[in-house]
Amino acid sequence: MEKITYDGMRNFIIENELTDSVAITLHPDNFDDLVMDYLDINGNQIERPFEILGIEILQDNTGGVTKSKINLMNVV
């Protein structure tokens, strides 16, 4: 996934049948792009924690997530 968008993330969650037992971690650049797309679609409103379809989306601050990759993290 080159650019991670709101629609692309929703499709990824649905296609992979993700549940709230995982969170998605993104590279900071991809996280920022996704948040900006989300804000455009939702009238500049964002929930905390940031979730799409009940899946929490986090920014990777460790440098462990490669740009344009989606990292799944177990939260249970």
Key attributes of the depicted protein:
76 residues; 2 helices; DUF2283 domain-containing protein
Q: What class do helices, strands and sheet pairing give? A: alpha+beta
Rounded to the nearest angstrom, the radius of gyration is 11 Å
Mean pLDDT: 91
Major pleated sheet: 4 strands, mixed
Overall number of domains: 1
Organism: Flavobacterium litorale
Protein name: DUF2283 domain-containing protein
Write a structural description:
There is one protein chain. The chain has 76 residues and is α+β, with helices and mostly antiparallel strands. The chain has one domain (6-74). The chain is 32% helix and 22% strand. The protein has two helices and four strands; from the N terminus they run H-E-H-E-E-E. The chain has a four-stranded mixed beta sheet with strand order 2-3-1-4. A hairpin with a 2-residue loop joins strand 2 (51-52) and strand 3. It is globular. The relative contact order is 0.30. The mean pLDDT is 91. This is DUF2283 domain-containing protein. It comes from Flavobacterium litorale.
Describe the protein's topology.
Elements: H1 6-15, E1 22-26, H2 28-41, E2 51-52, E3 55-59, E4 70-74
Parallel strand pairs: 1-3
Antiparallel strand pairs: 1-4, 2-3
Protein name: DUF2283 domain-containing protein
Organism: Flavobacterium litorale
